[in-house]
Amino acid sequence: MSLFHTLYDELIGFLGLNALLDMYHTGNYQSLLTLNGILGAVSPVLPFLLLIEITRAIVYKRFKIEDYRMPFLIFIINRVIGRFLSIAAIAFCIGVFEKYAIFKTTFTWYWLIYGYIIWEFGHFLYHYWGHRVRLFWCLHATHHMPQTMNLSVSYAHFFLEGAYADIIRTTVCILMGVNPPLLFFIMFIDGFWGGFIHVGENVLKNGRLGFLNKWILTPSHHRVHHAKNPLYMDTNFCNLLNIWDRVFGTYQHEDPKEPVQYGVTRNVNNRNFFDVYFGEFYYLALDVWKAPGILNKVRYIFMPPGWSHTGDHKTAVTVKRAYLESLKQTPSTTTQYEATTS
User: How far apart are CA 47 and CA 15, in angstroms?
Assistant: First the structure.
């Protein structure tokens, strides 16, 4: 019976129903007037969207078990240890850096706007370095392995990535004066939206969300981020507000004439958990082992993915540059590209 209780608890936890069930059993719905009550009531939205997404895929005969199997397996592996490390990282950063904050904020709407802009900057830094530093890419690459887009992809992360991300984001926010209660509220919004933008074509075919596509980062933008197309590589690093992508020149719309190809550029066996989860570490270790000299070995760790000591670089920058150069040879294609990026 204990096994069934454990499975039941895990299912209820995954669906985010704990708070709602507590309200139902106690008959106390006054908690809906509090922040924690509201957060608890909203928690089931993304898991149920995932169930709707899977159901629609089955109904329209587009369901493939391999599209969901690996993200769910990774979720199970990360269930305890990843969450523990993230909470510990957040608590550590708050404890160490709060006394060095440049000023103190309060839980008000105007400080929420300020705090979210700062949070997005921290998120941009973590995400940008996750693509531009080989070691950090090893932590982040698991999230980019799926070759389709659906809500289960939001659960596919290497177990250390959450702690790495939260150290950077929390430190930036705390030093810039975002107080912990405001930070936790921002984290909730970010977590919800960060999960939602992985919604697949089975639920949102277009993903642009109408006029919102001009003002925030939508599922369409995040599909671009997960693409391995040269035009789309290393773009849209923010989560909700696109301000820092615009500032640093990494903002990219989805081009209807450039269909998104999901995944990473190397060949991956998506049926092999170890290739999906540890593959990038293996290839990094291989490059470090073969590299001549200590300096080159260190460079492989900290230079962008695709860097080579031979000078034959296959980084996102060099691949995109070559692609754009090839477009210049075809005037009509170049015009099309300029129209989509203007």
Answer: 5
